[in-house]
Design goal:
This protein starts with a helix and ends in a 5-residue tail after the last strand. The protein is built from 2 helices and 18 strands. It is an alpha/beta fold. α1 packs antiparallel against α2. About 5% of the residues have low confidence. It is elongated. The protein has a 7-stranded mixed beta sheet, with no helix packed on it.
């Protein structure tokens, strides 16, 4: 929190300085005429402000963990295995976007979780009352410690889901995805079951009947 306050103070100082320079010259801050002998050059204050925006601010946004209303967002995390959301509420929604080679643990009970555009990402959670969604991702591992009614997998390559004893009634909904496996606890270990990717549809005289296609060896 102290880092954020320092960031805001530095931003306020930089903006105030630019406003003073703009008022003195009656020109836009970026229109500095001749600076250091170069026509159309950039004023030192503007250059310092740009450096701040491209440095400390960019790093803060890259590693952002933003709580906005009831939506908690983890974005652009890479090589992080210590991500934890420990203070949760029943109405809370977790959104994970473009995280790579990282793991997130969500404690307690939340409304829903969405994993979007992530690679080699692991999620461990206790309880979800709504749905867990995986979208446009690759190499995802999910471990359910408690209960979840529905897990949706869409446009994803590689998704392993470890269910708990209490989550065996979970419905798995998938579309446009491959390499999906559900791991069921049995005798102190997990047994892996693949989710069908191919289906066979036939007319039975009154309606279309669709069932998983058997893969011939």
């Amino acid at each position: 929190m102290a880092d954020v306050q320092e960031l805001l103070q530095r931003l306020e100082q930089a903006v105030s300085r630019l406003e003073v320079l703009s008022a003195e010259s009656h020109r836009p801050p970026g229109d500095c005429g001749e600076v250091n002998g170069v026509n159309g050059g950039v004023a030192p204050s503007v250059e310092a402000f740009d450096k701040l925006m491209n440095g400390m601010v960019a790093e803060f946004l890259k590693n952002s963990r933003i709580l906005a209303g009831d939506v908690e967002t983890h974005e652009y995390q890479e090589d992080r295995n210590d991500l934890v959301i420990s203070e949760t509420e029943l109405k809370q929604v977790a959104y994970i976007f473009k995280c790579d080679k990282s793991t997130l643990q969500i404690k307690g009970k939340v409304n829903s979780i969405t994993i979007d555009n992530c690679k080699k990402f692991g999620l461990v959670f206790d309880n979800v009352v709504g749905i867990v969604e995986v979208i446009n991702s690759r190499d995802i591992q999910i471990q359910v410690m408690g209960r979840v009614p529905t897990i949706s997998i869409n446009k994803t390559e590689g998704c392993h889901i470890y269910l708990s004893e209490d989550a065996l009634d979970c419905a798995i909904v998938s579309a446009k995805s491959s390499e999906m496996n559900i791991l069921i606890p049995q005798d102190g270990d997990y047994r892996e079951f693949p989710v069908p990717e191919q289906f066979k549809t036939a007319w039975d005289g009154s309606k279309l009947v669709t069932e998983p296609a058997e893969i011939m060896a």
